[in-house]
Amino acid sequence: MPLSDKIKELGLKGTQRDEYYAWGLRQVAKAVSFLNNDCKLVHGNVCLASVVVTPTLDWKLHAFDVLSEFDGNNEGSTGPML
């Protein structure tokens, strides 16, 4: 289910909402880190529409249609990407 739809369906409030968002954002950040650092790939379109929610409420990154290779030759790059 798209993240925006699931957020509306759950109707979380206050601390519960904040903790769920923080947990979900961490899952997306881990996915981006894996793509960037382990696979040397760039997602290219991380946004609300590129996140889906599983039946167990996990957030998953999808929409890899603009995925591209990261060559590591960016000037100013000093360490691992997110």
Describe the overall structure.
With 82 residues, this protein is of the alpha+beta class. The protein has one domain. It is 40% helix and 12% strand. The protein contains 2 helices and 4 strands, in the order ααββββ. The protein has a two-stranded antiparallel ribbon. A two-stranded antiparallel sheet has the order 2-3. β2 and β3 form a beta hairpin. The chain is elongated. The protein starts with a helix and ends in a 13-residue tail after the last strand. The model has no long low-confidence stretch (mean pLDDT 90).
Question: How are the secondary structure elements laid out?
Answer:
Blueprint: H1 3-10, H2 14-38, E1 41-42, E2 51-53, E3 59-61, E4 68-69
Antiparallel strand pairs: 1-4, 2-3
Give a nutshell description of this structure.
The protein has 82 residues and is α+β, with helices and mostly antiparallel strands. The chain has two helices and four strands, in the order ααββββ. The mean pLDDT is 90.
Feature tags:
82 residues, two-stranded antiparallel ribbon, elongated
Output the number of helix runs.
Answer: 2
Helix/strand-derived category reads: alpha+beta
Helix content estimate? 40-55%
What proportion of the residues form beta strands (DSSP E)?
5-15%
Distance between the termini: 25 Å
Strand order of the largest sheet: 1-4
* SSE succession: HHEEEE
Protein name: Inactive serine/threonine-protein kinase scy1
Organism: Papaver nudicaule (Iceland poppy)
InterPro entries: CIK-Related_Protein
